[in-house]
Design goal:
This protein is α/β, with parallel strands linked by helices. The chain has twelve helices and 13 strands. It has two domains: 178 residues, Glycogen Phosphorylase B (Rossmann fold); 149 residues, Rossmann fold, CATH 3.40.50. 35% of the residues lie in helices and 18% in strands. α1 crosses α12.
């Protein structure tokens, strides 16, 4: 099939550092190309793909020239697919709502994977305006806020089986990987680690908008020994960071749509200790790949229990449930059904 993939422009595909959506798109495109599909990726010019790259902006917006209007870059992305829509059998958008007016008028089958939270004001109005636009959710919990959308399927993320090497020895510290915002739970992670008497290593970016939060709430707790900030990690450094941990702490306080870091940890054989929120119960199998807890106290207790989990079993469940090949197969099915319907 001839497949177009529309990627956000904030990061390259794949991203150099932080960027879950762009990373998933890269894995999906590579897997589809390996299966013989003709895939064109509409993305920033510094992207690297096994498919054909249609560069709509020179460089990822986050790492590019300061002061660039992101709306201008998005306008060029939408115009690019509008001009070339007839070149494809199906168009797969990963940029939320903006292309819907154009995609709905091209006459070419399309679908949109929603990667973010959907419980925001005004989104139900958009769904009502585009009642036939097809969507894919990345967890069942994600779609609960918009039950009237035209949901085709829930397709959980997947990553390549050989991307991370598992380590089966018991880890020596707790890991936190993600944005340093209150909803991701870094303060909880610090308290959990201190109470459990385990070192905590934090691999995370500090968003510009969260500088005050970091300075006031987190920086005073980081001593470089028991609580250590290692900064953002790329794909190479992420593997030893996660594989060397006794557990990944995921104490979120928001309706997480998926939580890619959870399956990255599982790929390394590392169990996950996560709060029961958002997609967590769909990703973590309690007592098998980690523990789902309802309080800080239970998370502290879970640290003591995590050593009894079979890290080989954690890796095996990752391979069974969250491989990129499974993700690509499920999208292939949707592409073919859409094309047949057209």
């Amino acid at each position: 099939m001839r497949i177009a993939q529309l990627a956000p422009l904030a990061e390259s595909v794949p991203p150099r550092l932080y960027g879950g959506t762009e990373r998933v798109i890269a894995w999906l495109v590579d897997e589809l190309v390996a299966r013989g599909h003709d895939v064109t990726l509409f993305a920033s010019g510094d992207s690297n793909t096994a498919g054909k790259l249609h560069a709509v902006w020179p460089r990822a917006l986050r790492l590019g020239r300061k002061g660039v209007d992101p709306s201008a870059a998005c306008a060029l992305l939408i115009e690019a697919i509008a001009e070339r829509a007839r070149d494809f059998d199906v168009i797969h958008s990963h940029v939320d709502w903006l292309p819907l007016p154009v995609l709905s008028r091209t006459g070419v089958p399309f679908l949109t994977t929603m990667h973010g939270r959907l419980d925001l004001p005004g989104l139900s109005d958009v769904v009502a305006r585009f009642p036939t636009a097809p969507f894919v959710s990345i967890s069942d919990n994600q779609r609960r806020a918009l039950p009237n959308a035209n949901w085709l399927a829930t397709i959980p993320h997947g990553l390549p089986r050989d991307l991370f090497r598992p380590r089966y020895e018991k880890g020596s510290y707790l890991a936190f990987l993600g944005r340093l915002t209150a909803e991701k739970g870094p303060e909880d992670a610090i308290r959990i680690a201190r109470a459990a008497r385990m070192p905590l290593r934090i691999a995370a970016k500090i968003p510009r908008a969260e500088t005050t939060y970091f300075t006031k709430k987190l920086e005073p707790e980081i001593d470089g020994e028991n609580i250590e900030l290692v900064g953002e990690v790329d794909e190479i450094r992420k593997q030893p960071f996660l594989a060397g941990a006794a557990a990944l702490l995921f104490p979120i306080d928001w309706p997480e749509p998926f939580g890619l870091v959870m399956i990255e940890a599982m790929a390394c054989g590392t169990p996950v200790i996560a709060y029961r929120s958002g997609s967590v119960p769909e990703v973590v199998e309690d007592g098998v790949t980690g523990f789902i807890v309802d309080s800080e106290e239970r998370a502290i207790a879970a640290v003591d229990e995590v050593g009894r989990l079979d890290r080989r079993g954690v890796r095996a469940r990752f391979e069974q449930r969250f491989a990129a090949s499974r993700m690509a197969s499920e999208y292939e099915r949707q592409y073919r059904e859409l094309a047949a319907g057209a």
